[in-house]
Amino acid sequence: MAFSGQDGFVWGVGVVEDRFDPQKLGRVRVRWLGYHSEDKTKILTKDLPWAQVMQSVGGSAMAGIGEAPVNLVEGTWVCGFFSDTGWMDDAVVIGTLPGMNTTTALEGGSTLKRQWAKNRGEYKPFP
User: Fold this and answer.
1) Could you tell me the pTM of the whole model?
2) Which of 21, 30, 37, 98 has the fewest CB atoms in 10 Å of its CB?
């Protein structure tokens, strides 16, 4: 990886699909628009790479000390960049976009009045 921006800085917009980071570092799994397929049978949520979440200097981002990015829930729209333009699997989320998640990625069905499951990654169509 070269100094950020010298090897082709790539911005992205996506939707958070998993926030239960096993290492408890505040990472999230994001389905990036235009890069990952909207069809969840082609790439399952559990197969999406973890994205780091940029924090303010008030949060040390060191083993749970300081602030934590706990408000990113499944369905949150985010923007960020890839620090490895050759592989596009090392993403950094830098902020959120306003809005509501009103459709699923697979079929475009309504998600209103439904809750996102805690355990994610297996393909299960909405009823």
Assistant:
1) 0.71
2) 98
